[in-house]
Amino acid sequence: MTSSESRPAVSDRVFRALADAVLSGRYEPGEKLPTQRQLVADLDVNMTSVREALKRLEQLRLVESRQGDAMRVTDWRAQGGLDVIALVLVRSGALDRDALRAVMEARASMLSEAGRLAAARRDDAQVERLHELAAAIAGADAPAAAQALDFAFFAELVDASGNLVFVLVMNSIRELYFEHADLFHGIVDAPQSLASRYGEITRAIAEHDGAGAGAAVRELAEAQAEQLEAALAGEAASPAP
What is the CATH architecture of 94-237? Predict the structure, then answer.
């Protein structure tokens, strides 16, 4: 532990290192983790930080402790919850491309259904807010602004759907998304090319056209997924400076 690192920062570093090891398969389901003393020595940290990190892993059901036995790795694919998605998606500061495709596929389906529901359940204030956000996206001149407005638009759409689970999903990914906003900037790459689609979605919702809203949302979400894939491929192909 360096003198400049606070205890929470050290605990977070330990947590991320162990989570990466579990999610990458370095530790198999059912395998024992190293003892706490071993982890302290291997990671050059204190016992408190290790215990805090292990507690977080246990809360996420990535490991489990049984009386009289060492802490063991769980089958996180069978037992993990929504919070695990963030750890699977971004590991060691980079996007896992397979996990990203799965997330974007689920995103398109969820947002499409939210659009269909919003057309039936929205109120006038929500429609007005969607109109404002669609117009703001069309006029955005900075990628970061367009990215924030895009998230706000879909958060408003999900809220208008009246589906609590969809709302909680959006809440759960908000921190991850903005913490790693630079990794997702391809979603709104050249925002003007997709700007009109936000207006199409809003019109369909305003007109109570559930099928039209759902289809328009899916088209936009799938186009964004393609843009993100292309942006990431371009970055991977670019030579290092």
Answer: Up-down Bundle (1.20)
Q: How confident is the model at residue 127 (pLDDT cuts 50, 70, 90)?
A: very high
Taking Cα atoms as reference points, which of 146, 237, 121 lies closest to residue 198? Answer: 146
What architecture is domain 7-81? Answer: Orthogonal Bundle (1.10)
Structure confidence at residue 238 as a pLDDT band (50, 70, 90):
low
Task: Please measure the distance between the N-terminal and C-terminal CA atoms of the chain and give it in whole angstroms.
Answer: 32
Residue-range domain boundaries for the chain: 7-81, 94-237
CA gap 211, 190 in Å, rounded: 27
Residue-wise pLDDT for 36-64, tens only, equals 999 999 999 999 999 999 999 999 999 99
Please work out, in degrees rounded to the nearest 5, the angle formed at the alpha carbon of residue 145 by the alpha carbons of 144 and 148: 85
- Max CA separation in the chain (angstroms): 63
CB proximity list for 128: less than 8 A, separation 6 or greater: none
Rounded Cα distance between 208 and 149, Å, is: 23
